[in-house]
Amino acid sequence: MSLLPWHDDLARDVARRLEAGTLPHALLVTGPPGWGERDFANWMALRLIDADTDREAAALAHPDLRWVVPDGAVIKVDAVREIVAFAQGTPQSGPRKVAVLAGAEALNTSAANALLKTLEEPPPGTHLLLVSSQPGRLLPTIRSRCQRLEIRPDHQAARDWLADRVAADVLDLRLFEHGGAPVAVAAAEAGGQPLLAGLLELALDPARDGEVVAGLLDSGLPDALGRWYRYVAAMAAGHRPLARPDPAPARALMGFADELVWVRRQLLSSNSANDRLLAERLLVCWRRVESARP
Q1: Residues near 292 by Cβ (< 8 Å), separated by ≥ 6?
Q2: Per-chain mean pLDDT for the chain
Q3: Which 8-state DSSP code applies to residue 239?
């Protein structure tokens, strides 16, 4: 997993500080969603343990590396306790130890509190990397103990990088659906993910509900809802990225946008959310938008 072109300046800064011995031990790797904060954390974790940075760190069995991801919608306290215990030991085969918490915004309160002391006073030779594109969801006490490494978008570099990965005739629409996020665009293209526009027009036909729900679930429902929101917001602003629903009063569209936000929050914050039922609920609400009148 290589660095992305817009990561180069930040990578040089990290390498310089590491060489000088001034790299902090508690770091928050952040940036807008879809700009590769996980890719950067992958490179950095492997660089810190002097491993091949083209590898997949999360899949690497290494005594000086731990990579934690959310269990469903949360990172639980037991996973953090394991990280705290890992941090207390000495490096076994390299110059330092690294623990990565990907999707760190998913730390529940107990897990976050269990991490505080280790963030404040990491043992010598240990680096803790928290990775999040939603740092506002982290407790202030967590954020205050970490130094930020912020990935900054470079839209021209992103388009150049995507030129060899995405067909030119769909690039602009994919960029629109994914909010200009190049990593998300490349993943959608590589995975053969259908554009959402066609699915949303099918969603206005109750006879196609099964097909539409399956398409939303296959796309990953939280991601699909984020893309859906962009279409709705554009229509509420007077644009026509979709032929239907028509007419589409701004009030009805913004009410539906609120529904999309609520459902997405349920999916991201709860392990008990029923994706299928929530998707079916949205289809009913979507058809109400078309039936509304100015």
Answers
A1: 247, 248, 249, 251, 252
A2: 93
A3: -
